């Protein structure tokens, strides 16, 4: 029966029965002691064989070809109170639209701006909800689809890694998370919301690991253990799983069935993290932490076969990348900073080697890189949230974070979905494990009286006690689950009645809906007709308006032309008037000229006739004189001849 109440699938019981946690993508379960480790390797063979090797047919998300670049997001925190009080200059500008971050640098009195582009940029005003929506929501979906996903926060101390990952934690008000809740509580809530909306049958377990001074500790281990192996104090071993992965021996995985349970676990674990006051952060996390959520979801194949899908979300809060003197780390703190830097330096070297493809990748040089191996260049889907501060005092560290994160953008992973496991095979394994435990119990009883070293006896006793307590807890859990099942059955029956009632109502509503749909269709037809008429009218109006515009333009042209013609005509008339006047004046002049000419001509005529008569008389005189001259000359000539 499928219900919305979280139910534990057998896989969860198997997981709960073991206490080794693999950091490898495979959902393998390993027991607490070395004997148990051996057992699980045998017993877990069915699971391990089917789970770690990802099925190429099931793989999605671009595992093929060159892989998928890991996502790198950048978040810049706002100035804090101290920085504001001393008016610290801001040297970082974020352009969220263009996904750019610019750092203003002053080198030798020259202003040099460096700009970096990321997959997403969150400025100082960004909300926790924004970061969650862009960084985590898609990955939560991938986890529920059976992928392993890792989100890790990287940045200088005091830049908001813990704020981004945990924020105000999971203190809910009226079932809602506070606005400052970070990525982890929001991811938890979303996972439960989705699973419950899908009425999925699932089981979930969480682990919380701390890496401090290259030593691993379990943040979920009980504070005081009656038994010899007090894990809260004792560092834990990181072991190779023989398949290229690693697991942390003895890491507690708590089975959870509600978001509030996880919030409590988170609060408990976070409280145990090593923190200290530094110049840059009053409550600086001095360790790296990895909070992991493993989800097993039941699915049915079309053939009715029950399968278990497994996905894992690793949420990593790294310790601050820092300069020892600037961070104010002293004495023990300096060693601490050195160790933190060792892990982060190795992380940097791993990133560089991955990006430059320059041979051997030094994963093994630090525990952090061994743990994150599958998230960097492996089969996991990874997202890095790099955090920076905007103040000028942090510029060097900010640039180093920006360079680091920008380089990490080029890392390619080949995400592959975890192969689904058959539920029947899991149950078989579980029964096998129970039988084995029973046999061990009988054998242990029968061994009464045989000598074994006291230390081993105590250890075995402690383990037996822990196991029987666990068994009791499991039985109790089973009983309560049975009760829950009964309750749910009752609920189911009442729901059935309710559903019959509702289906009647649904039918009535469907009828009404059909009628409404008919009316709607008629209305839609009318609406379409009206729309067409409106369109036609609009077309006509548009054309009319166009014609009117043309006419108005033409009228304007005509009017200007008319005005020009009127001007021309009045010019012409004034010209004609002037011409008439000139003609009249010319007439007068001509008349005057004519009479003057006549007078002058008469005078000339008279003068000429006078002159002619004078000339005639003068000619006569001249003739006479000439005659007399000739006669005189002739006389003279004759005289001369005679002489
Ligand atoms: N985006 C933000 N908005 C508001 N306050 C922030 C933001 N980021 C960080 N802070 C505040 O700045 C302080 C330091 O943040 P936080 O402890 O998360 O830094 P951190 O990077 O985890 O430092 P460390 O590496 O030392 O642990 C906290 O008081 C936190 O509330």
UniProtKB/TrEMBL annotation:
Segments forming domain Kinesin motor: 69-411
Location of the region described as Disordered in the Swiss-Prot/TrEMBL record: 1-39
Coarse class of the protein's main subcellular location: cytoplasm
Keywords of this entry: ATP-binding, Coiled coil, Cytoplasm, Cytoskeleton, Microtubule, Motor protein, Nucleotide-binding
Pfam families per UniProt: Kinesin
Lineage: superkingdom: Eukaryota
Coiled-coil parts of chain: 427-540, 605-632
GO biological process per UniProt: microtubule-based movement; mitotic spindle assembly; spindle elongation
UniProt-recorded Gene Ontology molecular function terms: ATP binding; microtubule binding; plus-end-directed microtubule motor activity
Cellular component GO terms held in the UniProt record: mitotic spindle; spindle microtubule
Keyword tRNA processing: no
Location relative to the cell: Cytoplasm, Cytoskeleton, Spindle
Binding residue positions for ATP: 155-162
Function: Responsible for microtubule translocation. May be important for the organization of phragmoplast-specific arrays of microtubules. Plays an essential role in stabilizing the mitotic spindle. Required during mitotic cytokinesis.
UniProt record similarity statement: Belongs to the TRAFAC class myosin-kinesin ATPase superfamily. Kinesin family. KIN-5/BimC subfamily.
Name of the featured protein: Kinesin-like protein
Origin species: Triticum turgidum subsp. durum
């Amino acid at each position: 029966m499928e219900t919305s109440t979280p139910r534990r699938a057998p896989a969860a019981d198997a997981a709960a029965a073991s206490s080794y946690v693999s950091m490898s993508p495979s959902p393998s379960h390993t027991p607490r002691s070395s004997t148990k480790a051996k057992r699980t390797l045998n017993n877990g063979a069915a699971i391990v064989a089917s789970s770690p090797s990802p099925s190429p047919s099931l793989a999605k998300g671009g595992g093929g070809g060159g892989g998928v670049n890991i996502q790198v997001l950048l978040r810049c925190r706002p100035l804090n109170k101290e920085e504001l009080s001393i008016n610290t200059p801001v040297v970082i500008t974020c352009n969220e639209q263009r996904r750019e971050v610019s750092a203003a640098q002053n080198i030798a009195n020259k202003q040099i701006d460096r700009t970096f582009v990321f997959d997403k940029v969150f400025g100082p005003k960004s909300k926790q909800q924004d970061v969650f929506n862009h960084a985590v929501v898609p990955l939560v979906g991938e986890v529920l689809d059976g992928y392993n996903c890792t989100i890790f926060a990287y940045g200088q101390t005091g830049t908001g890694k813990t704020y981004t990952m945990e924020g105000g934690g999971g203190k809910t008000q009226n079932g809602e998370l506070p606005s400052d809740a970070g990525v982890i509580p929001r991811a938890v809530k979303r996972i439960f919301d989705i699973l419950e909306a899908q009425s999925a049958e699932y089981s979930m377990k969480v682990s919380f690991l701390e890496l401090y001074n290259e030593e691993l500790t379990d943040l979920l281990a009980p504070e005081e253990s009656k038994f010899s192996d007090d894990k809260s104090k004792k560092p834990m071993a990181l072991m190779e799983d023989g398949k290229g992965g690693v697991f942390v021996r003895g890491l507690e995985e708590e089975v959870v069935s509600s978001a509030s349970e996880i919030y409590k676990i988170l609060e408990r674990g976070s409280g145990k993290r090593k923190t200290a006051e530094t110049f840059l952060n009053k409550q600086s996390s001095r360790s790296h932490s990895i909070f992991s959520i493993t989800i097993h979801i039941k699915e049915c194949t079309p053939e009715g076969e029950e399968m278990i899908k497994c996905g894992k979300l690793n949420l990593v809060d790294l310790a601050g990348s820092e300069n020892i003197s600037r961070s104010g780390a002293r004495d023990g703190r300096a060693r601490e900073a050195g160790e933190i830097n060792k892990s982060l330096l190795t992380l940097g070297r791993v990133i560089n080697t991955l990006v430059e493809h320059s041979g051997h990748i030094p994963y093994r040089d630090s525990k952090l890189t061994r743990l994150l191996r599958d998230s960097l260049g492996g089969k996991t889907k990874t997202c890095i949230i790099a955090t920076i501060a905007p103040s000028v005092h942090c510029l060097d560290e900010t640039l180093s974070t920006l360079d680091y994160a920008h380089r990490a953008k080029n890392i390619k992973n080949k995400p592959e979905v975890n192969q689904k496991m058959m539920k029947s095979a899991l149950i078989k394994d579980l029964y096998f494990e129970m039988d084995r435990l029973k046999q061990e119990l009988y054998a242990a009883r029968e061994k009464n009286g045989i000598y074994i070293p006291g230390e081993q006896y105590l250890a075995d006793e402690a383990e037996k006690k822990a196991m029987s307590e666990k068994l009791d807890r499991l039985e109790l859990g089973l009983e309560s689950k049975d009760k829950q099942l009964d309750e749910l059955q009752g609920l189911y029956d009442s729901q059935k009645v309710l559903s019959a009632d509702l289906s009647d109502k649904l039918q009535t509503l469907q009828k009404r809906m059909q009628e409404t749909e008919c009316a709607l269709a008629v209305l839609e037809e009318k609406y379409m007709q009206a729309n067409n008429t409106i369109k036609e009218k609009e077309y006509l109006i548009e054309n009319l308006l166009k014609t009117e515009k043309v006419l108005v333009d033409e009228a304007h042209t005509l009017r200007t032309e008319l005005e020009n013609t009127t001007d021309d005509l009045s010019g012409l008339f004034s010209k004609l008037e002037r011409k008439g006047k000139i003609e009249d004046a010319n007439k007068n002049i001509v008349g005057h000229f004519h009479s003057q000419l006549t007078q002058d001509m008469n005078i000339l005529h008279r003068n000429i006739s006078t002159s002619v008569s004078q000339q005639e008389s003068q000619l006569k005189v001249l003739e006479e004189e000439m005659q007399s001259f000739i006669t005189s000359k002739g006389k003279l000539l004759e005289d001369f001849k005679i002489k």
